[in-house]
Amino acid sequence: MEIETYEVEENVDKAMAPAIEAEALAQIEKLGLKGQQKLVVKNPAGQDERIPYPEMSRHEKAVYEILFPEKTKVEDYDSGIIPVRVLQVIGHATGLFERVEVWHKPMRDPDPILVAKLGEKYHLLARWGGEALKSFPMLVKEARALLQEDYERRIEATAQLCKTSLATIKSLVEDGLNGRWVHIPQ
Questions:
Q1: What is the predicted pLDDT for the residue at 138?
Q2: 99-129: pLDDT as tens digits
Q3: Side-chain half-sphere of 79: how many Cα atoms within 13 Å?
């Protein structure tokens, strides 16, 4: 099984990580870095910690929502096993975010994603699945095809409603003249 996690980590010795994080937080405060301060939240222990997971762009969010229409709170997800590494990410992220979800396809999904929400922002935490995870450009290609199929189906249905309305235009006009409600498809 392939697993990708998206936390940004400093390239430091693990034993030095807490000291490096404390230094980063002190520098952010000292320098008045307002943008970086927005990335600082309280962890479950009540200490300040920077959010190490990237925020999804609107484009990324749209692609993932098209491909993974089901959003299940992580504690309720039962469409497949969650690998241990992803469970570790969940353990870390749960205290940092308002909500942690698994985005997946209906039924049993072999390749879901783990997403966290904080305010109006969504963060990509992890992906896991089969032999090899598809690249983001491949996912965009799949989302484009699904969206085009959906739009074509909806536009064709609207076109059919318009044709039906045109075929019955005289009765629609009479209904309108007699004060009855008339639906004109748009």
A1: 94
A2: 999 999 887 767 899 999 999 999 999 999 8
A3: 22
Kindly provide the residue ranges of all beta strands, DSSP E only, lying in 40-179, ordered along the sequence. Answer: 40-42, 48-50, 70-73, 99-104, 113-118, 121-129
At residue 11, the pLDDT reads 56
Contact 117, 96 (CB under 8 A): no
Domains of the chain by residue range: 2-133, 137-168
What DSSP element (H or E) covers 134?
A: none
* pLDDT, position 49: 86
Which token pair is 162?
């318009």
Rounded to the nearest angstrom, the gap between the alpha carbon of residue 145 and the centroid of all alpha carbons in its chain is: 19
Is beta strand 113-118 parallel, antiparallel or unpaired with respect to 70-73?
A: unpaired
One-letter amino acid of 96:
L
Residue 36 burial (CB count, 10 A) = 15
The residue type at 148: Q
- Cα–Cα distance for residue pair 102/62, rounded to 1 Å: 15
Return the structure tokens found at 147. 């969206």
pLDDT of 98 over the 90 cut: yes
pTM of the prediction?
A: 0.80
Q: DSSP per residue over 17-65, as a string? A: HHHHHHHHHHHHHHHT-HHHHTTEEE-TTS-EEE--SPBPPHHHHHHHH
**Cβ atoms of 127 and 111 closer than 8 Å:** yes
Q: Which residues pair with 126 in a beta bridge?
A: 5, 114
Q: Count the Cβ atoms, other than its own, within 10 Å of residue 182.
A: 14
